């Protein structure tokens, strides 16, 4: 009977070892499957991150291109403003030259009227007085024209100063935006 017990114990031990080996084999296989799943999940996550990074880079590049295009448009607009301002300056300089020439003609007229007043011995005193009165009225009209012209110059200078202040504000704003 002791032999039978030993034989059953041996068989039980062998069966236990077999169950243990099978169990360990299953666990090893399961851990290999888990590792393979983990590697697959890691690869999937890395792929997902790579796609996200590629998308972020694409968006950043698109944004950089759009910003560059806006900069080009801004530079073109600024150049158009500068060209228009230069054109206005040329027109203003031409108008000023014309005004200076008008002023010189006005001065010449005033000098010639003033020099001729009351001159000439063949005139009677009454004729000389009438002639001086007419010349004085003409001089008054010429002085009125000169005053009007001076007012127009002052208004043009003030408009020019306003334009310069506005352009200076635009330039300062652009410099702030470019910082």
* DSSP helical segment count: 2
Topology, number of strands: 0
- How much helical structure, as a percent, in the residues? over 70%
Average pLDDT figure: 81
Describe the structure.
With 179 residues, this protein is mainly α. 94% of the residues lie in helices and 0% in strands. The chain has one domain (2-178). It contains 2 helices and no strands. Helix 1 runs antiparallel to helix 2. The two termini are 101 Å apart.
SSE topology:
Layout: H1 2-116, H2 125-178
Brief description of this entry?
The chain is mainly alpha-helical and 179 residues long. It is 94% helix and 0% strand.
Key phrases:
179 residues; 2 helices; mainly alpha
């Amino acid at each position: 009977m002791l032999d039978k017990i030993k034989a059953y114990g041996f068989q039980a031990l062998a069966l236990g070892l077999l169950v243990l080996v099978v169990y360990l084999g299953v666990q090893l296989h399961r851990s290999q499957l888990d590792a393979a799943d983990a590697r697959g999940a890691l690869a999937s996550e890395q792929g997902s991150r790579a796609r996200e990074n590629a998308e972020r880079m694409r968006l950043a590049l698109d944004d950089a291109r759009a910003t560059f295009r806006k900069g080009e448009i801004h530079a073109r607009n600024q150049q158009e403003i500068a060209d228009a301002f230069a054109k206005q300056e040329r027109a203003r300089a031409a108008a000023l030259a014309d005004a200076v020439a008008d002023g010189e003609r006005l001065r010449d007229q005033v000098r010639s009227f003033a020099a001729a007043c009351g001159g000439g011995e063949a005139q009677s005193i009454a004729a000389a007085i009438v002639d001086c009165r007419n010349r004085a009225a003409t001089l008054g009209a010429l002085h009125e024209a000169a005053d009007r012209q001076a007012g127009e110059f002052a208004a043009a200078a003030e408009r020019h100063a306003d334009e310069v202040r506005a352009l200076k504000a635009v330039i300062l704003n652009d410099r702030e935006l470019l910082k």
